[in-house]
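Please fill in the sequence for the structure shown.

STRUCTURE ENCODING:
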């Protein structure tokens, strides 16, 4: 098979890297994981088979940049205790590098190698899909929870201690959040089941420093959920870093759930089950 020139090899790797990284702006995480892993498999196989460099240098050029990008993000997330959607990408790309590098020692035929990796990719994708929603209750800053305040339309301010005595469900949202409207609608539909139960409070909490008042009012209009507001800096102090984000406090003021409001019952931390379990304890 005719080898690529060094310039062609490097250029194709740069294009591949841009596609792998840039696709995140157009694809949801699950689709991106599946599609990029399949693409990377065939692209890496092709590039390595036509590389003008030595085996080690070829693997460094093909795999090191992408593994460094995701690996550094992984390390940052571990150090600063952040959520990181790049973990499954790092591991699937690393496994691909290992399979291709040791394919001779593994004594796998090309079909066996392809099938083995694809099975791994589908398992990784399924696991990622199921565990996407993380409960970050233990990572909420309890000290900050006792210090920050929220307020209502009348500028009445409330500490989080003031919500003790009731099951409190707060969904945090921003004006520019693309998924917030759908999630708020689902939360409102759920809250309608318990609208006559005075033991439960449901709130939508806007996270903005200087919101556009007219746009804010137009977005809030369709919802009859009680409306509260919080400074963006205070939300970050609580370690609420994603929107929509949901916070569930039991009547004792303890955090039951914090994280993305997952309304998909086939995924981990299905918020409806979490809420109904807490309601059953009242």
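FILLED IN BY: designer on duty
SEQUENCE:
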């Amino acid at each position: 098979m005719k080898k690529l020139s060094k310039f062609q090899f490097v250029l194709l790797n740069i294009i591949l890297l841009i596609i792998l990284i840039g696709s995140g702006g157009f694809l949801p995480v699950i689709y991106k994981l599946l599609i990029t892993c399949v693409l990377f498999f065939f692209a890496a196989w092709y590039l390595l088979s036509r590389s003008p460099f030595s085996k080690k240098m070829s693997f460094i050029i093909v795999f090191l940049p992408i593994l460094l990008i995701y690996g550094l993000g992984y390390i940052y997330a571990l150090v600063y205790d952040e959520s990181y959607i790049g973990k499954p990408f790092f591991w699937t790309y690393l496994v691909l590098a290992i399979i291709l590098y040791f394919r001779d020692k593994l004594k796998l035929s090309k079909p066996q190698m392809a099938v083995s990796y694809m099975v791994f990719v589908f398992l990784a994708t399924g696991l990622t899909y199921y565990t996407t929603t993380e409960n970050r209750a233990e990572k909420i800053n309890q000290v900050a929870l006792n210090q920050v305040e929220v307020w209502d339309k009348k500028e009445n301010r409330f500490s989080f201690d003031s919500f003790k005595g009731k099951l409190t469900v707060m969904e945090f949202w921003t004006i520019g959040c693309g998924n917030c409207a759908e999630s708020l609608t689902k939360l409102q539909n759920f809250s309608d089941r318990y609208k006559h139960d005075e033991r439960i409070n449901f709130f939508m909490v806007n996270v903005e420093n200087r919101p556009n008042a007219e746009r804010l009012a137009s977005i809030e209009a369709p919802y009859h959920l009680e409306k509260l507001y919080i400074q963006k800096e205070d939300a970050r102090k609580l370690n609420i870093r994603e929107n929509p984000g949901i916070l569930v406090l039991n009547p004792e003021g303890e955090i039951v759930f914090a994280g993305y409001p997952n309304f998909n019952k086939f995924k981990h931390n299905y918020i409806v089950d979490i809420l109904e379990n807490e309601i059953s304890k009242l």
